[in-house]
Amino acid sequence: MQLSRIVNFHNTLGDKTRIRIITLLKSGPLHGQAIAGKLGLKPPTISHHLSKLKEIDVVYQRRDKNTIYFYLNERKLEQMATAIVRIGGSEMFESFEVSVEEKTSIIDNFTDKTGQLKTLPAQRKKKLIVLEYMLRGLEDGKVYQEKELNEYIQRYHEDFATIRREFVMAQFMYRKDGLYELNPKEMWPV
Predict the structure, then answer these.
(1) How many angstroms separate the CA atoms of 130 and 111, rounded?
(2) Which of 1, 104, 121, 138 is the most exposed place for a label (fewest CB within 10 A)?
(3) Could you tell me the residue range of the domain that residue 65 belongs to?
(4) Whether pLDDT at 45 is above 50
(5) Which residues, by range, are in coiled-coil regions (predicted)?
(6) What is the CATH number of the domain that holds 110?
């Protein structure tokens, strides 16, 4: 979980109206007019708050004929609300200990003499070790354009799109609007 996503989540929920909307949606889906009526607010105000809640994926919508109903994404709400407690904890990541010798052996098995990746390991533990190895030349705090990151990854492997996606999915990097940044090492799974 990226820190900026956690901060954005809490900033977005830091509004009484949005919390009241979430409370209403816990009982089941409602359309915008019903929410406005129950809260005593105008529909454009409700639309504004619902769009903010949709941005953080806490609310989603479904159309039924001519009416749009809003639903609470309870799983996402719970995941994001508890993320701050899990930062750095064993619940957040699959925890495993690997010796330096084992890491070196894994890297040697999956790279050639020039350091190029022969293949991406299928086993999660080995894949994370290889991905971490590939990140060693990136700088903490630096924001990388997608093209720049692609060029960096190509030093190790031709399929930069897959590797870039793996960096983000494994929580090594954060991506927003085509910009990439390393997450703090405390958030890394290895």
Answers:
(1) 9
(2) 104
(3) 3-86
(4) yes
(5) none
(6) 1.10.10
